[in-house]
Design brief:
Layout: H1 15-25, H2 28-33, E1 38-39, E2 50-54, E3 65-66, H3 72-77, H4 81-101, E4 108-109, H5 133-148, E5 158-164, E6 177-178, H6 182-198, E7 204-207, E8 211-212, E9 215-216, H7 223-227, E10 235-236, H8 242-247, H9 256-266, H10 279-290, H11 296-312, H12 332-344, E11 347-351, E12 363-366, E13 381-382, H13 388-394, E14 401-404, E15 408-414, E16 417-420, H14 439-443, E17 452-454, E18 462-468, E19 471-475, E20 481-484, E21 490-494, E22 506-511, E23 514-519, E24 524-529, E25 532-535, E26 546-551, H15 553-562, E27 566-572, H16 592-604, E28 608-613, H17 621-626, E29 629-633, H18 640-648, H19 677-680, H20 683-686, E30 704-713, E31 719-727, E32 733-743, E33 754-763, E34 768-775, H21 777-781, E35 783-785, E36 790-792, E37 796-803, E38 809-817, H22 827-830, E39 832-833, E40 839-841, E41 843-847, E42 854-858, E43 865-873, E44 878-886, E45 892-898, E46 901-907, E47 917-927, E48 930-939, E49 942-948
Length: about 950
Amino acid sequence: MTAQRPPFRDPALTVEERVADLLGRLTLPERVALLHQFAPAVPRLGVGAFRTGQEALHGVTWMGRATVFPQAVGLGATWNPELLREVGEAVGREVRAMRAKDPRVGLNVWSPTVNPLRHPLWGRNEEGYAEDARLTGELATAYTRGLAGDHPVYRRTAPVLKHWLAHNHEVDRDTASTSLRPRVLREYELPAYAGPLRAGAAAGVMPAYNLVNGRPNHLSPLLAELRGWQDEPLVVCSDAGAPSNIAGSQGYLPDHAAGLAASLRAGVDSFTDHGEDSAPTVARLTEALERGLIEEADIDRAAGRLLAMRFRLGEFDPELDPFAADDAHDTAEHRELARLAAEQAVVLLKNDGLLPLAAGRSVAVLGPLADEVKLDWYSGALTHRVSPLDGLRSHPATGAVTWHDGADVVRLRAGDSWVVVPADAGAPTADDAEGALDPALLAGRTDLSPLTVGPAEAATELRLVDWGDGAVTLSAPNGRYLSVAEDGLLRASAEQPGGWVVREVFTLRAHGDGHLLVHRASGTPVVVAAEGLKVAAPGEDGTVLTVETVRAGTAAVAEAAAAADVVVLVLGNDPHINGRETEDRTTLTLPPAQEALWRAAHAANPDTALVLVSSYPYAVPAADAALPALLWTAHGGQAAGSALARVLHGEVSPAGRLPQTWYADDADLPDIRDYDLISARATYLYSDAEPLYPFGHGLSYTRFEHRELTVTEEADGTLLAEVTVVNVGEVAGAEVVQLYAGAVAPELPRPHRWLVGHQRVELAPGESLRTALRIAPDEALGHWDVAHSRWTLPPGEYRLAVGASSRDLRATVSWRVAGEPAGPRPVRELGLAAADFDEVSGAELVDRSPTEGDAVAPADPAVPAELRYRGCDLAGGVRRVTVWAAAPAEGGTLTVALADVEVSARVPATGDRYRYQPVPVELPRQARGVRELRLVLGGAVRVDRLTFE
């Protein structure tokens, strides 16, 4: 090999050989520097700088204008893996095209989010695909395949799955611990990751901010298991700021060097911390090396995985990289795909015959989202924009169109003066060279005159929209939102609410004879000062304002509704205001102001169709009972309005299916922090509540029948379920055939039913199709056996049912599984892990040690925790049960109940939560046979395991 072409530049060598050569040429400081998100260039070797982390959830994010596809939950509503593969490919191609113009665009893409949507109040609900883990995994596999491409050597992009593990709440997300029992881990959480990883489609994973069972996710011992699911090295990228949390907000380890060392040993490769400043990370890793907390081998292992990813991205073979010229950006094909995806994401919830709309009817398009295309934190800048109003106006079948946003028109009075928006508050900032909006437009501009006060005749009429939970926005006649700039002054400057800190949201807080206008981002009231309206200084009182309603939005909506043949009312959320990253929702209900709008519209015109455009489900039983038609779509991206108009007019028959249960009431939900689906009776799998709309629900403009369901076993043991689907209606449409399984009389709690397969089929009127769905019975019908720490398929009878939703099952076949039962727990031989319980109340899982294992403790030391372990085989008899327990401070109590004997014991203080000592429990007589064991814990006690003598 010549000096001009070292081995790492030779594409004939394996990636492993090339990585080893390059690592050998890098100095230790250079290798350490590779582990920060912003890895510097190594000019002497011709190695360029590299950044991990390009967001691409439903289009290229934050780097300029790009095609914006529906939100991930909307893509989930399509139930169409092939569509998601095409969307992923389009996004990956735009990443490449944008990188060719701007090297800041990264090829290591942090998408998709594969957390199953366990709880609909999660602020980041918009980022996931479905509450079902199998469906999530299948859609994530398709999307990552599109992002990565199908070349045998090189990747178009390197997708990273988010957020490992059990991450479905935002409140205290960096300090709260998720209690995750083994069955929920194995049956619900891991399957969402298993699909894309085992398919080799994903290049990495990102740990979440939260702790699981008391241990930070960035120290998860399960990362090693994930790496065994695929052949290529799996890169683990930390979440932003999370490495500092380990010794910071989490206080898990004593200092930052120890925190980074522990996460590196656990498997984290790339540290996302301190923005572009790599110095703190490099200093902490270097200190860890000097203190002997890590070795060079740990650095090399992580650096090697990162370099392997870069080799597979073609960085070192630009002349061979098949994706280097893959510069498709805002193409006609991508625009068409965005429209198709938005169409397939529309779910028809209810229809009493109002839809599709008859041609030529006049339409009142009403509501706060009627003329909006809302983006979210992970959206790119729009290349095109079609709102519902735009879509209906331009559709040839629409008659006359009127519009009103339903906002209240108000004036604000401060004493004898009135709030005035200056005349120069109109022009938006110019687009930058890449076509993205100037960030100052969202953060609050300072180049415009601030709001002031003046006489009544100069008062400005503002449009007030109440988004619920006390959040309101105010906009000037020119459409610009009131925003608070860095200097604290209010200006009508923002095109939309947005940014990481949303500066355009206020609360009207009753005070005296009026209200304080409180700026939500700062928590500070607005005061009228000589320089204009601004947020008050600390300790300064706000100015009391009187809100004068010039015209109520409900009155305007009622007037417009009464004058039209039909009403299309568009309600929902703004993703930057109502639930988002860092902020969970508090309720499923519509904001009261929006509830009033649909009631006003319906009272004025019974032919009112309610379109809910939102990032999550709502509880709308009253609307469902009253209105003739309801639809839901997630925020559908740039073509949302065109797609909705085509669906409303019947040009496209709706075929979206709900990826989540829509509950009827908040009371049907468990606590958002309760991740134990089994005990909490959560999701469609376990919920005993009657849903408003079930998982998988979605109507069509035609009707489908499911006939002649058969199930047969193929030579390899695969089960083949076949059903004939017939379009018995008068228009073409798509049906999503859904196959569910359920266990008959299971010994352990199992879901009511669970999705094991689905297929989307397009049928003309009168057409029939014999569809086939294959399932592997061990994987599809089995569950995690905590008694033996393995996956098992219990013998017995199962139901396989096909239908149009999880509650609309049209045909069922029984299937019997032969085989030997799993048998009782061999506790005499192997002991009993405390975390392997069958039933639980009042307990949580905690970390057995900082590096591995789980223990059990009372969730509240003042409330006893109870655990039950079924089928304990006592063999020749047991006279003593030894409980290995720790009580760091004051000690506690435990009770062992076995057979008809119940014995309590005191747990002495051990001085350390990880120092487990034996607590012998002597039984008054020998216990024999196969028995249930009950363990009750009181106080600050941790239990690791039990042994039997």
